[in-house]
Specification:
mainly beta; elongated; Polymer-forming cytoskeletal protein
């Protein structure tokens, strides 16, 4: 009869360093560094954490600052603070209040951002809701995309989705108002505010205030706000 080896727990308080490996629970309170190849059912970080390699975690919670030098895989990731991933990130659900920087691509099911998200490659999710700022070097692809521009300038090379909504959300702080720029935005139902795009292509396209669009290619309907400029309309 085979027996399942029980995984140990890793607890770090103050400042410390531990080797990678498989753990049941990982808890860092203070400053903690974990070596390459971490696997854990649950990981909670209060303070500053550093994983020197890839990490596979079922439930990840961060309250503070955390960096993963390699790839990160997490079924659920909840971040209040800062997350930096040197490689790629995969998740089922990600909730962020703060700032996240992902060096390569990101892929998951649901992504809720309040703050700033930067992805160095493509970003693919079923649902993406952002309040704040988003920067994607490649393709942003999601079924439901809802972006509330809060501050600074958001940049995405290409956006593709079923439903795409971009609005400006005013803030109570006197900061630079948010804008979005993209080369191509393509979807079924599209509504845009304060967006600059070379091409917007969709079935139903509505351009709100503050937009500068090079060309709109639409199938069914197209509306443009008087305080936006569109160089060319084409029904396809």
């Amino acid at each position: 009869m085979e027996t399942t080896k029980k995984l140990s727990h890793l607890k770090m308080y103050g400042a410390g360093h531990a080797s990678g490996g498989s753990y049941q629970n990982v808890s860092i309170k203070g400053e903690g560094t974990v070596g390459e190849g971490l696997q854990s059912e649950r990981c909670r970080i209060f303070g500053t954490g550093l994983f020197l390699g890839d990490a596979e975690i079922n439930r990840l919670k961060i309250f503070g600052e955390h960096e993963v030098a390699g790839d990160l895989s997490a079924r659920s990731a909840n971040v209040i603070g800062t997350l930096k991933v040197g490689g790629s990130m995969r998740f089922a659900t990600m909730r962020l209040k703060g700032l996240a920087e992902i060096g390569n691509g990101a892929a998951g099911e649901q992504c809720h951002i309040k703050g700033s998200l930067t992805v160095g490659g493509d970003c693919e999710t079923e649902l993406l809701h952002v309040t704040g700022c988003i920067n994607v070097a490649g393709l942003l692809n999601a079924g439901d995309i809802n972006i509330h521009l809060r501050y600074d300038r958001s940049r995405v090379k290409e956006i593709g989705g079923t439903s795409i909504t971009v609005r400006r959300k005013p803030g109570f702080l006197k900061r630079k108002a948010g804008t979005l720029s993209a080369e191509l935005i393509e979807g079924d139902a599209i509504y845009l505010e304060y967006t600059e795009a070379d091409i917007v292509r969709g079935k139903h396209v509505e351009i709100g205030p503050g937009c500068k669009i090079g060309k709109i290619e639409y199938q069914t309907s197209c509306k443009s706000h008087e305080k936006s400029t569109v160089q060319e309309h084409i029904k396809i």
